[in-house]
């Protein structure tokens, strides 16, 4: 173990000016040990082996004790001369360019951006002057092909590398290998991007396509919204290069998420949407067979394109107007595709997410999505993020009002992602950065960001007048030559092609558009359909309430026994051991089953029948209320064991992950996953149902409406703990009323199960039935261990999900004059009170499925009570919340249709702005009162 000494004992010269010099020599030693002097090599050989975080290298040198005298003599002999002092300044200058060169880079095509002065990039900041420009210095580990060069050559190289059309931020990365990889790729190029003549022509052809479509649409559909890419045309060759480069190294699928701007252009010029179909949408033709449909710049698409490595399937995700929420949806879809290909985090599927500058900086879902990127349950092996940076934001915002830092991309530094800023008016720089970004993701399996500085030629949309709020900017834009024209002029000047050829590209593209021909030059017209996710088994079925969810009882017992088998030496915590032991008795028929036993048997049976299972949420392994214990923890060594993963050989994938503390991004991820793998049971559980509030836009814009807007089926299940237990406003309600308000067109299922058998059959029905609809479960808390909330193994094996559960006590139905309808936990409060008071004129019926509303089954039950005078809806929630406002008009219709004179009334809490009170005393008083009101008890 090395002795550590106080830094003050070391020579002052060593602890200050020499630190940067030593660090550069150390970097050079790590890259090529033989390139440094013998004294240095012997010293560094004693350094701890392995990758060292170079943000701490200087501190490490200062804190080394045993060899401190030796390193002092080495440094002093090396830097004691005046030239040696200037050499240190040179190495400090190199470090400054790597750290701050991006602040001097020529990124803004308009030349308007105000940049912070980077004093570190001046010679004087490091004790150097112009008189040193002809002096030869050691280049340290600067990758310019020589170990010595004049200061002038060094500065010239660094200006080209770090201060041209590309500005790079990577020195915030801790991993030295990643930093050195970026450094080598950047510095060895020295600002030369290496495109040959054919590649340059291809870039011009794609720019011609990007500009040509926008001009054509602008002339044909004057004033129509299209959110054109004008001013950012380099986006099209950028995405094209990403796809082709990914395909060349074996990628099979690329999933893209993006907002409005440039979307139509990408659909036509990259993905191969027929221009005639797009024109039809502009003319008001709907391509949807049913439902509301959506505007054309929200639509998704899929196709296959050819790359050097073979056919690649492209999928553009459907998205709403929430500009960034599609990001985690894409990640979920990518993860599902990787699971299907058995290549999680690998090369088979590449996610590309496109952002606007203001949205990238401003919308919190990006932070959540970045935070997921390297977690075990949500990683996809890195995402390429593209920011189409128009420098205005949404409509009128000034960057000073849109964020608190210089760049909109600073949020990506939280996960140490490299950030490549690039001037969109330099297409070759854009292509170089694109290659670099792809290769970084491919090499390190981590996120990377491309920030393409461009501008908006037309404003937020084509009906907008941007000069009203950005007068100075649009004076420049109105006079500005387009990116395509600038690049065509450059290639003509370089004699890559002549003017006639460049102009003919424009005519050829326009002719293709007018003829209705595909203009995506890599489109595969007869794609390999095996690359698609097959949804055909889940299309065209009737939505029925009943589905066979029976399962052989002997096999259930076998699965229950199997789940109790643990690895040798696995020691459970005492209370958990008791739960698992009792569960074995429940699952083999020796005692009634509770909720956790039935739920885990449902999962086991689904896996046994070949369906993938994925369960995520903030506390799903154990369960927030300690009922599930699907993931067991060894008390000896901290290892974990998941019995559901070990039911039999070659069983379907089972994934149970405790997620990061996020609702919005995680729920969006699971939605994307569920829309991609239909033969599965995908579940997201909220820690408390109330917390679904934090993911409301996912519920509103995807889960409830995705099918009617985009014809996207989704079988996602949401488990939302719900029940009034006196825990206050934020731990009582899953906001049942919000889900019910969104219900229409058979878009979702909303259930309030009250028995273990009901949750068992509901989960099995969700997987087995060949219909994929979201399932919203207001799952219990206190019922998880309630003495009355039990089921038998026979009910699991031979039963089915009941949309309505009739009165279970032995009451003469002809004597019933008061019929109480309810759902969820309140049933047990009602039935216990009714039994206590022996109210034989009152029956209690549970509506277990609120939507689709079980009209026929409920009518069948009500018909068995011929003498009912009053129909009461009882609920725990306030009157303006819960199910009352949803179910009341339906009950009135039911009564009228039956031709009965029955009074309909409400029993529950009064209307309230908050879901529940904060006082346990008041809660108990309210609960007792609503039960009495429901049962007509006066106390």
TrEMBL record:
CDD domains: TPP_E1_OGDC_like. It comes from the Bacteria. GO terms for cellular component: cytosol; oxoglutarate dehydrogenase complex. Its cofactor is thiamine diphosphate. The keyword Nucleotide-binding does not apply. InterPro entries: 2-oxogl_dehyd_N (IPR032106), 2oxoglutarate_DH_E1 (IPR011603), DH_E1 (IPR001017), KGD_C_sf (IPR042179), ODO-1/KGD_C (IPR031717), THDP-binding (IPR029061), Transketolase-like_Pyr-bd (IPR005475). It holds the Pfam family E1_dh. Keywords: Oxidoreductase, Thiamine pyrophosphate. The keyword Oxidoreductase applies. Belongs to the alpha-ketoglutarate dehydrogenase family. This is 2-oxoglutarate dehydrogenase E1 component. It comes from Acinetobacter faecalis.
């Amino acid at each position: 173990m090395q002795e550590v000494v106080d830094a003050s004992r070391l020579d002052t010269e060593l602890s200050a000016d020499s630190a940067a010099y030593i660090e550069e020599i150390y970097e050079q030693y790590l890259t090529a040990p033989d390139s440094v002097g013998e004294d240095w090599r012997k010293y560094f050989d004693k350094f701890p082996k392995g990758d060292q975080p170079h943000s701490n290298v200087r501190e490490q040198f200062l804190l080394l004790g045993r060899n401190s005298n030796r390193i002092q003599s080495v440094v002093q002999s090396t830097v004691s001369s005046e030239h040696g002092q200037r050499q240190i300044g040179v190495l400090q200058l190199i470090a400054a360019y790597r750290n701050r060169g991006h602040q001097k880079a020529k990124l803004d095509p308009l030349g308007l951006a105000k940049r912070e002065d980077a004093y570190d990039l001046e010679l004087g900041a490091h004790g150097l002057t112009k008189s040193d420009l002809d002096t030869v210095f050691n280049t340290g580990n600067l990758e310019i092909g020589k170990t010595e060069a004049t200061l002038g050559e060094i500065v010239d190289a660094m200006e080209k590398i770090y201060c041209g059309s590309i500005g790079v931020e990577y020195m915030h990365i801790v991993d030295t290998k990643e930093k050195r990889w970026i450094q080598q790729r950047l510095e060895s190029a020295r600002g030369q991007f290496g495109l040959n003549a054919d590649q340059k022509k291809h870039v011009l052809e794609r720019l011609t396509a990007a500009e040509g479509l926008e001009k054509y649409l602008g002339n044909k559909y004057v004033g129509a919204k299209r959110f054109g890419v004008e001013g950012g045309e380099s986006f099209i060759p950028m995405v094209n290069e990403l796809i082709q480069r990914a395909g060349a190294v074996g990628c099979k699928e690329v999933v893209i998420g993006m907002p409005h701007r440039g979307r139509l252009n990408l659909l036509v010029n990259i993905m191969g949407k027929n221009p005639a179909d797009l024109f039809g949408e502009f003319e008001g033709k709907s391509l949807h067979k049913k439902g509301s449909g959506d505007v054309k710049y929200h639509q998704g698409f899929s196709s296959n394109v050819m790359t050097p490595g073979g056919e690649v399937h492209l999928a553009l995700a459907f998205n709403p107007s929430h500009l960034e929420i599609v990001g985690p949806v894409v990640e979920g879809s990518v993860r599902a595709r990787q699971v299907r290909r058995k290549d999680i985090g690998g090369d088979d599927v590449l996610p590309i997410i496109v952002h606007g500058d203001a949205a990238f900086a401003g919308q919190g879902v990006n932070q959540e999505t970045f935070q997921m990127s390297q977690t075990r349950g949500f990683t996809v092996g890195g995402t390429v993020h593209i920011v189409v940076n128009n420098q205005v934001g949404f409509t009128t915002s000034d960057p000073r009002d849109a964020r608190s830092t210089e760049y909109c991309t600073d949020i990506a530094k939280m996960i140490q992602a490299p950030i490549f800023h690039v001037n969109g008016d330099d297409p070759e720089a854009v292509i170089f950065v694109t290659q670099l970004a792809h290769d970084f993701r491919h090499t390190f399996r981590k996120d990377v960001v491309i920030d393409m500085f461009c501008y908006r030629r037309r404003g937020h949309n084509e009906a907008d007048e941007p000069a009203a709020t950005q007068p100075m900017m649009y004076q420049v834009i109105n006079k500005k030559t387009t990116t395509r024209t600038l690049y065509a002029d450059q290639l003509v000047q370089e004699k890559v092609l002549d003017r006639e050829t460049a102009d003919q590209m424009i005519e050829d593209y326009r002719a293709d558009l007018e003829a209705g021909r595909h203009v995506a030059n890599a489109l595969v017209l007869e794609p390999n359909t095996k690359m698609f996710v097959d949804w055909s088994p889940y299309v065209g079925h009737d939505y029925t309430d009943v589905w066979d969810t029976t399962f052989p009882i002997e096999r259930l017992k076998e699965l229950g026994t199997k789940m109790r088998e643990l690895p040798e030496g696995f020691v459970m915590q005492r209370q958990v051991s008791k739960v698992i032991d009792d569960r074995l008795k429940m699952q083999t028929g020796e005692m009634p089953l509770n909720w956790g036993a039935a739920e885990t048997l449902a999962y086991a049976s689904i896996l046994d029948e070949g369906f993938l299972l994925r369960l995520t949420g903030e506390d799903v392994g154990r369960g927030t209320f300690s009922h599930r214990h699907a993931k067991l923890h060894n008390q000896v060594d901290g290892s974990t064991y998941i019995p559901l993963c070990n039911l039999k050989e070659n069983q379907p994938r089972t994934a149970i992950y405790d997620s990061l503390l996020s609702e919005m991004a995680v729920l969006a991820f699971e939605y994307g996953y569920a829309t991609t793998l239909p033969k599965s049971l995908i579940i997201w559980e909220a820690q408390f149902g109330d917390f679904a509030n934090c993911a409301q836009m996912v519920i509103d814009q995807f889960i409830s409406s995705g099918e009617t807007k985009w014809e996207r089926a989704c079988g996602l299940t949401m488990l939302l703990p719900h029940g009034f237990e006196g825990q206050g406003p934020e731990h009582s309600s899953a906001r049942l009323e919000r889900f019910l308000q969104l219900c229409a067109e058979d878009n979702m299922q909303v259930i309030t199960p009250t028995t273990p058998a009901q949750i068992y059959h509901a989960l099995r029905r969700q997987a087995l039935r060949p219909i994929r609809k979201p399932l919203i479960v207001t799952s219990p808390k206190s019922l998880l261990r309630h003495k009355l909330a039990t089921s038998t193994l026979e009910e699991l094996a031979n039963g089915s999900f009941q949309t309505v559960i009739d009165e279970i006590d032995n009451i003469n139905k002809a004597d019933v004059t008061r019929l109480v309808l309810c759902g969820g936990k309140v049933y047990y409060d009602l039935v216990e009170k009714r039994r206590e008071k022996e109210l034989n004129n009152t029956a209690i019926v549970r509506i277990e499925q609120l939507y689709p509303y079980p009209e026929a089954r409920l009518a069948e039950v009500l018909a068995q009570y011929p003498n009912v005078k009053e129909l009461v809806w009882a609920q725990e929630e306030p009157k303006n919340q819960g199910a009352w406002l949803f179910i009341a008009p339906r009950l009135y219709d039911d009564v009228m249709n039956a031709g009965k004179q029955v009074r309909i009334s409400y029993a529950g809490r009064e209307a309230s702005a908050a879901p529940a009170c904060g006082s346990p005393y008041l809660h108990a008083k309210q609960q007792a009162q609503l039960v009495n009101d429901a049962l007509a008890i006066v106390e």
